[in-house]
Design goal:
GO terms for molecular function: DNA-binding transcription factor activity; transcription cis-regulatory region binding. The protein is mostly helical. Helices cover 73% and strands 0% of the residues. Helix 5 crosses helix 6. The mean pLDDT is 86.
């Protein structure tokens, strides 16, 4: 019977081997036989640790998110939430183009029932960028909608570029989409009073967790009102 330490070593070797095969030859190369040979373990070990091939692929995707988060943690804020969002977008697209097979597995093969804490944490980083924009009074739509829009557009652009032959890619596609999304969710100076009021409501909604003067019940009620107003 394997000890926990031995099982962890086997798991790490297997995931690393599967990640290499995925990068070199695509998802079809990640067979139980090929991975067990590359990792130096017997095929039953893979079934015991991951259940089946899909379980192994889920583990590879989770490993990809761990690496993604490690890279994000090294980048410091510029002090400008919009510049931070732009940098995060560009970094996201660059990661996808550098490791297309892994990125496609992480984002195209997503299944809600297998969402891992690290995958959620990756999305939460985007949420923090959006929250910073809201706190600066620059967000014109609710935070949840803004985060969902940026996530959908960013991953969609990246997958589109991955599926397009390198010599046929539009070099301006990512930047154009990025700026269109930013224009849709942010504001410099609201054009009219209604826009200014909505922006103020979004900003107040972002600051609610810090309003210690209000009780939990009062903050909950105010959040409900602000959410209703901004929609």
């Amino acid at each position: 019977m394997e000890t926990g330490e031995v099982a962890d070593r086997h798991r790490e070797r297997i995931v690393n081997a599967a990640t290499r095969l995925l990068a070199e030859d695509g998802p079809d190369a990640v067979s139980t036989r090929a991975v067990s040979a590359a990792a130096g373990v017997q095929p039953p070990t893979i079934y015991r640790l991951f259940g089946d091939k899909q379980g192994l692929l889920d583990a590879v995707a989770a490993h990809g998110f761990v690496r993604y988060l490690a890279g994000k943690s090294k980048r410091r804020s510029t002090g400008d939430p919009l510049m931070d969002l732009r940098a995060g977008w560009d970094e996201h697209v660059a990661m996808g183009l550098a490791e297309p097979a892994l990125y496609t597995l992480m984002y195209s093969g997503f299944r809600p029932e297998t969402e891992t804490p690290v995958a959620r944490a990756a999305f939460d980083i985007l949420g923090k960028h959006i929250r910073a924009i809201a706190e600066a009074g620059r967000l014109r739509v609710p935070e949840e909608r803004a985060a969902a829009l940026v996530h959908a557009a960013g991953s969609g652009v990246t997958l589109t570029l991955i599926r397009t032959p390198a010599d046929q890619r539009d070099p301006e596609l990512s930047a154009t989409a990025r700026e269109a999304v930013i224009a849709a969710i942010t504001t410099d100076a609201p054009a009219h009073a209604a826009s200014a009021t909505v922006a103020a409501a979004v900003t107040l909604r972002a600051a609610l967790p810090e309003l210690g003067q209000l009780s939990i019940a009062e903050r909950t009620l105010l959040a409900e009102w602000l959410d209703r107003f901004t929609r």
